[in-house]
Amino acid sequence: MKTLVVVTHPSMESSVINKRWVEELKKHPEKYTVHELHKVYPDGNLDVGYEQKLVESHGNLVLQFPIFWFNCPPLLKKWLDDVLTYGWAYGSQGGDKLKNRNVALAVSAGIKKEDYSEKGRYGYTLEHLLSPFETTFLYCNANYRSFFAFYGTESAPGENVPGTENESPASELEKSALNYLNFVDNLQLIEEN
What we know:
5 strands; alpha/beta; five-stranded parallel beta sheet
C-alpha cells in the first residue's frame, strides 16, 4: 500500500526544506500520497471523515512539518485532535484504525543539531521534544518509527549547513531529500526504540 504523507506547512511557497521534500515525494505518485493540509483546508476546517478514510486507505503514515516553537504547526495539532477520535484511533468499538500501522515524523528544525541536546542551548533533544507524538501513537497502538530531521534551516544563505563542513547547503538539501525517501521506504525495517 502507498504511504500517506500529511504535510503541514503554513507557508510552503517560501519553504526550502519541506518544499524540496514534497517535490521529491511527488516524483513517485505510485508510492506516496502527499496531502498538504494548508492547501486542502485554507480555512482550517477539517473534513474529519475524509481524513480518516484517507488514513485508512493507506499503509504507512508520515507527518511532515517544520518545528514551530518546539512543537508542530497549529493545523497539525488540530488534525491530531480532530482526526484521532475515540472509537476510531483508540478505545473500544472500532478504535483500532491505527493499530499496527507504521507512523513516523519528518521535521525541519531551524536550530542547529548541537543546540538540540541536553548540553545544548535549549537543554532538550529533538527526541525529547517530539515524545508527545510518540506517546500519542503508542496510545493508539500504532508502530511509531521515529523521525527524520533536517537541522539548521535558519542558517544564512551561503553558509554551510551545520554538520556538513565540506558541503554546500544546496548539496546537503538534495542529499536530505533522497535520504528522506529512503527513510520513508524503509519504515517497516526500522526497529522500534
